[in-house]
Design goal:
Length: about 400
């Protein structure tokens, strides 16, 4: 391998691989530079473990002449026979290099060597990718060169690891921040925070459809069931809503015990209020069906559930609110307050879905007028609407 060309690749990495905008582009550029420098690379993989409640890691696979494949694996992979027999398991657990050659009898313990032989590959090496936080990630390098990688090739790969690890860690940290913000505050809020809206007073006014829901009988449920069972119930219950909300363009801003606050932004310049609200209503119908079908065994009994959701549309103040150095990215305003009051009416009326007059006027539907109700904090009584296909008897 040409040492001068290798140094150019190292300098490119040290400079931050600035010519590439996305990770997949960076990996493709990186591999093509190495091949041009004389490394007989046919396949390259980089495997980054993630800080995510469901995803164990992400992988990027480059093959000569093909686009980079991007994938992810969940934690179930740790219990599979394939992972148990993979060189990457040894890399993750022991932080050591693992080599497999088609002409080496000792390499037969790795099933990947048979796959290599079928694809015409001759040599494979998995190399740890250490991050500064002490975590170990992995790279894999494969060649079709007769006789496999030379000693100079292996030395070049080892020389590349340190700068590759620094660039990968920077990219990984950015993605970890995005995933954590997405997990805990929502995608749009996370993007705003990463974009610099981190000070108290950084707020925007936004028109949105508002969703505020609550689980019926949660206080009594919490009193008679073990805490672990209540947590399990809440997680399944929220799953029934979050999938529908996100599937129709909404963002969950907050979980409040058994309550859920979500918003569906409306682009006032496009004039898509009717379309957005129609999606909100469909999400409410889907959630209703999912909650009605939810049955969780607890001891000798099976728990069934009902919930209520209020739908409203209006302007909200969206941004950082809090005290000292503890802020919350949320939304406030009279529209949110009205949605919260309407949600309480769902229980009084034995309804699952209720809508404000404003929402019903935007989302033309077969609504059933439920009457006018005085709302605490509002000078005028509010007209409330329900779905015509709900025929529950009025409660209290």
């Amino acid at each position: 391998m040409n040492s001068a060309e290798l140094q150019r690749v190292l300098n490119w990495l040290i400079d931050g691989a600035w010519s590439a905008q996305e990770p997949a582009e960076m990996i493709a550029d990186f591999c093509e530079r190495l091949v041009a420098a004389g490394l007989p690379l046919w396949r390259f993989g980089i495997f980054i473990r993630t800080l995510h409640p469901e995803i164990f890691g992400r992988n990027f696979i480059w093959r000569q002449g093909e686009d980079v494949e991007i994938g992810s694996v969940d934690f179930d992979v740790l219990d599979t026979p394939e992972f148990a027999q993979s060189p990457l398991r040894i890399v993750f657990e022991q932080s050591v290099e693992v080599r497999g050659r088609v002409d080496d009898p000792n390499s037969k313990r790795f099933p990947i060597v048979d796959d290599m032989r079928a694809e015409g590959a001759t040599d494979y090496i998995a190399v740890p990718l250490p991050f500064l936080d002490g975590s170990t990630h992995a790279t894999s390098w494969m060649t079709r060169q007769p006789g496999g990688f030379s000693d100079d090739d292996i030395a070049a790969i080892r020389a590349i690891i340190a700068p590759l690890a620094r660039v990968s860690e920077i990219i990984s940290l950015r993605r970890t921040a995005e995933m954590l913000l997405d997990t805990y505050v929502g995608n749009r809020a996370g993007a705003r925070i990463l974009g610099g809206q981190i000070r108290r007073g950084h707020n925007d006014t936004m028109q949105a459809a508002i969703w505020l829901s609550d689980l019926r009988g949660f206080t009594a449920l919490s009193d008679r069931l073990p805490a672990e069972a209540v947590v399990t119930i809440l997680n399944h219950y929220f799953d029934c809503q979050v999938t529908a909300i996100r599937g129709h363009g909404g963002e969950v801003l907050k979980f409040m015990g058994d309550g859920l606050l979500a918003v569906f932004p409306i682009d006032e310049y496009v004039g898509d209020a009717a379309h957005v609200c129609a999606g909100v209503l469909e999400a409410a119908r889907e959630s209703r069906a999912s909650v009605e079908a939810l049955a969780i065994p607890v001891g000798d009994a099976v728990e069934r559930f009902r919930f209520g959701v209020a739908l409203h549309v209006g302007n909200i103040l969206y941004g950082n609110i809090g005290g000292g150095n503890r802020l919350d990215f949320t939304c406030i305003g009279p529209a949110v307050n009205l949605a919260a009051r309407l949600e309480k009416i769902t229980g009084r009326l034995g309804r699952t879905v209720v809508a404000s007059e404003g929402f019903a006027n935007v989302c033309r539907h077969d609504w059933h007028e439920l009457g006018e109700f005085p709302i605490a904090g509002f000078s005028k009584a509010q007209r409330v609407y329900g779905l015509a296909d709900e025929t529950y008897a009025q409660v209290g």
